[in-house]
Amino acid sequence: MKQFLEFVIRQLVEFPDEVMLSEIAHGKTTLFRLQMRQTDVGRIIGRNGQTIQAIRALLSSAAGRHDQRATLEIIE
User: By the 8 A CB rule, do 40 and 49 touch?
Assistant: First the structure.
């Protein structure tokens, strides 16, 4: 899941080398924390939050296939 998430996010941002994705596992729940350049945050969130909602939906679906739960948090 982490590689998939990194791939999607790096395709959307202007500075992909500055993207930092950390993974924190708690049983069946995984929390992904995303750090990036401030100017790229808007690209990930998208208009009215549509892009981040789509990314979170894909992540949740992928986690569900493995009987897991996953959340994505953007750290500014």
Answer: no
Residues whose CB falls within 8 Å of the CB of residue 40, separated by 6 or more in sequence, listed in order = 12, 13, 14, 15, 18, 19
Cite the DSSP H helix spans in 1-76.
2-12, 38-45, 50-65
Structure tokens belonging to residue 38: 């401030």
Percent of the chain with pLDDT over 70: 100
* CATH code of the domain containing 67: 3.30.300.20
Number of domains comprising the chain: 1
H/E element holding 37?
Answer: none
pTM above 0.85? yes
Rg (CA), the chain: 12
